[in-house]
Structures are given as C-alpha cells and as structure tokens.
C-alpha cells in the first residue's frame, strides 16, 4: 500500500476484497497520526480517530502539549471523511507557521511541518504495528516502566521548558514532592511485589488528581514529583491536602492483604523571577518534604520564602 496524492494531500490507499478488509490487510491499513517532531513532547504521536482535535496547553484541548509557548487552545486539526486533514490556527498568541510563514488555515500534506511555539508537528499515515513499535520506543525513553508515568529525565526536560516560560512571564509555579511513609517496612512486611503494587496504585491516584496541563513523574524509588502551572499557594495546599487524604483513605491491597499507606508532602510555590533556578525550587520542596517526615509523616509542609534568595 503506498500513499497516493489527491487534492494536494497524501492519502493512504487500501485494497479491499468484496468491499471488506481481511485480517492481514486490516493490520496494514494506514491511519492518520499527528506526530510531534520537536519540542518538549518530541516523539509523542496521536492517532487521529475523531473528527477534530484541538491542540493546546489547557485541559480543554483534545491533545495537550507541554510547550509553554503554545496557547491554551492553539490550533485544530479536522479530519474529513476522505481523510484529508485541515489545519486551522485558533487565533493563538504566538501563531502557527509553515515554511517560515504564519498560517491561519491549510490543507495538510505529509511534507508539511507546522511550527507552533517550539513544537514542530506533522501528519503521518501509519499502520498499527508501525505506530505501536514507535510508541514502545517512546515509552522506554520517557516513562517509568513500573508506573507508566513520566520518568525523572523526561520530567526535568519538560519542567525546564516550563520554568523558562515562568521566568519570562514572572508566572506562578508550584512544585510538590511526595514520598511514601515507611515504605521499606512495607516491602519487608508484605514483600517487594506488594510494594510495587502500592507504587502503581499511588501513581494512578496522583494521575487522577492532576490536570492534563500539569506534570507528574516518578522522581526516585518511592518519591514522586508534580509541577502545577499557575497555581497559587492556597490552591496548591488544598490540592496537596486532597491527595494526602485520598491516599490515606485508599484501600491498597495486594493478593488479599490490605496495605495501609500514607504519604508525606512538601510544597514550594513561587512566582518565578530571573534569580530563581529549577534545581533550587525542587530542593526547597524536597526540604519541606523532609520536614513533613520529621514532623510526624502523613502531613504536608509548605516552604516559606522571605526574599528572592530562598526559604525562611
Ligand atoms: N517495592 C519497591 N520498593 C522500592 C522501589 N524503589 C525503591 N524501593 C524501596 O523503597 C525503600 C525506601 O526506604 P527508605 O528510603 O528507608 O524510606 P522509608 O522506609 O520510606 O522511610 P521514610 O521515607 O522515612 O518514611 C527502600 O527499601 C527501597 O528498596 C521499587 O521500585 N519497588
């Protein structure tokens, strides 16, 4: 099956027997994918199954891109029945570009590379198995094998982009670190696989509580890190308190054994200025987490600042 050119777009063609596809053909059917070629989401790809996809930074977007230079609702890809795809910019702040020129509306071909913020994307037509093997490579590089959430390296890469944006815009940022209390004891009491199950369930609880536009990663063994965009300190505290309670009330269980679990949390909220650095903000959140441990665990501590230089 080779893609054929029609109405200016490259479309996949498929051979059908009696109007239907046999199993092998079905496996080779080419479907449209949105592929992210560069920027903080490089390597991600999304199968375009719906009629339209809004791309943006906010929770309301169908495809959320972490690039801080992308608008909350930046652009939309509309997939027509004949599989042609129309690109439209949604009056984004920084615009969308093709070949160096700002575009509002454009019928896409597979050669087109759209630039939005620092993100370059294009449409590709792939069969399921090809897309699956590429997704597997992406997962291995950017996600944690046990929990499926971002790994530390991928988190730092994205968090640095977000941090640079916050610096330029003097924006609010919250870093939340959390760590399972007495996790070694759980491994010792219930076994390592039970400990693994706790980590998987915990990451699912945290994921559920996150907005799509925020970041969650496994930072170390039983330590997780979250970056909350534009979140004032009261909202960050309320959110952290909710996850602490959600974890405390969750019936963690492994092979019939109940595993009571709590977490300690450190929160650092900061309006980011030119003097700030991401490692420092993370260290301060980690110090607050350490304090939460010292003060009895199953609690949260908030890092306090009295100057641009650091915490009180
Ligand atoms: N099951 C499991 N255990 C892990 C994993 N990664 C790290 N650990 C264990 O997590 C435990 C962390 O123990 P500590 O750093 O002593 O901390 P803790 O027992 O949680 O005590 P506090 O943090 O002070 O409440 C160690 O026993 C590690 O072996 C993992 O992927 N799976």
Point out poorly predicted stretches. 1-19, 307-312
Which fold name fills CATH's third level, the topology of the largest domain?
Answer: Alpha-Beta Plaits
Radius of gyration of CA atoms, rounded to a whole number: 23 Å
Bulk shape: globular
Instruction: Give me the side-by-side strand order of the main sheet.
Output: 4-3-13-12-9-10
What is the N-to-C succession of helices and strands? EEHEEEEEEEEEEEHHEHHEEHEEEHEEE
Mind describing the biggest β-sheet?
6 strands, antiparallel
Strand content: 25-35%
Which architecture name of the largest domain does CATH use?
A: 2-Layer Sandwich
Query: Domains counted in the coordinates: how many?
Result: 2
Distance between the termini: 65 Å
CATH homologous superfamily descriptor of the largest domain: Reverse transcriptase/Diguanylate cyclase domain
Level-1 CATH class name of the largest domain: Alpha Beta
Q: What is the number of helices?
A: 7
Strand count = 22
What is the subunit arrangement here? single chain
Ligands bound here? guanosine-5'-triphosphate
**Overall mean pLDDT:** 88
Helix content bin = 25-40%
């Amino acid at each position: 099956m080779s893609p054929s050119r029609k109405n200016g777009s490259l479309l996949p063609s498929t051979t059908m027997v009696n109007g239907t596809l046999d199993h092998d053909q079905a496996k080779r059917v080419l479907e449209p994918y949105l592929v992210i070629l560069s920027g903080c989401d490089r390597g991600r790809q999304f199968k375009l199954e719906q009629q339209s996809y809004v791309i943006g930074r906010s929770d309301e977007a169908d495809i959320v891109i972490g690039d801080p230079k992308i608008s909350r609702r930046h652009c939309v890809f509309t997939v027509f029945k004949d599989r042609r795809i129309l690109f439209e910019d949604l009056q984004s702040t920084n615009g969308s570009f093709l070949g160096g020129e700002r575009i509002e509306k454009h019928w896409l071909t597979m050669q087109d590379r759209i630039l939005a913020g620092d993100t370059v994307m294009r449409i590709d037509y792939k069969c399921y198995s090809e897309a699956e093997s590429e997704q597997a490579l992406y997962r291995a590089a950017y996600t944690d094998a046990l929990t499926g959430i971002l790994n530390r390296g991928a988190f730092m890469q994205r968090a640095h982009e977000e941090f640079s944006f916050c610096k330029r815009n003097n924006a609010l940022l919250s870093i939340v670190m959390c760590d399972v209390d007495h996790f070694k004891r759980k491994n010792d009491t219930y076994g390592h696989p039970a400990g693994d199950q706790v980590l998987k369930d915990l990451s699912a609880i945290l994921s559920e509580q996150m907005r799509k536009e925020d970041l969650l990663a496994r930072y170390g063994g039983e330590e997780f890190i979250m970056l909350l965009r534009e979140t004032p300190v009261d909202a960050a505290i309320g959110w952290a308190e909710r996850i602490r309670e959600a974890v405390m009330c969750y019936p963690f269980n492994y092979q019939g054994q109940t595993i009571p679990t709590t977490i300690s949390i450190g929160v650092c909220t900061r309006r980011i200025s030119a003097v700030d650095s991401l490692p420092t903000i993370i260290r301060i959140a980690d110090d607050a987490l350490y304090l939460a441990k010292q003060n009895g665990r199953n609690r949260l501590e908030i890092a306090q600042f009295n100057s641009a230089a650091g915490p009180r």
